[in-house]
Design brief:
It is a single chain. 19% of the residues lie in helices and 28% in strands. With 138 residues, it is of the alpha+beta class. It has a domain of 88 residues: Aldehyde Oxidoreductase, domain 3, CATH 3.90.1170. Helix 1 packs antiparallel against helix 2. The chain is elongated.
């Protein structure tokens, strides 16, 4: 699963959802492959969900073509034990997430037909917590 090798700060603030629905300004175009999967809503995608989506795509394409993962989970999310009482400080880092804004390209694919790419991206979209749509390179 994806996670950073080294981080500057072990824990980070959760933040507020101030700019709800704020569009992405980077990673909005299909740059590497021919087909892409673009997010239409915002959300947190964790490393397990990215891996599940990648597996779904590679299984359907029978390991053909090339797949690019355009997002990386670099934000730590902390969790405390289930039996711990209130107080005692913040929990330890549990997993990492990638913050996804509407318009972000999550995955790209090349070397397969459009029908195969569309179906494999559809299967991958089921694994993700954000709404997505299939896009092609202009």
């Amino acid at each position: 699963m994806l996670e950073p090798k080294k981080v500057q700060h072990r824990k980070c603030h959760k933040g507020r959802s101030r700019n709800q629905g704020l569009r992405a300004t980077r990673m909005t175009n299909v740059d590497f492959g021919q087909y892409g999967l673009k997010a239409t809503t915002e959300g947190w995608v964790n490393s397990r969900q990215i891996e599940a989506a990648r597996r779904a795509m590679t299984r359907y394409t029978k390991r053909g073509g090339k797949i690019w993962i355009r997002i990386f989970p670099d934000r730590p999310i902390t969790a405390k034990g289930s039996q711990s009482t209130m107080g005692g400080g913040k929990g330890s880092p549990d997993h990492y997430i990638a913050v996804v804004r509407p318009g972000t390209v999550l995955f790209e694919m090349d070397g397969v037909t459009e029908a195969v790419a569309r179906e494999s991206m559809r299967l991958a979209a089921y694994k993700l917590p954000v709404r997505t749509r299939f896009v092609t390179k202009q």
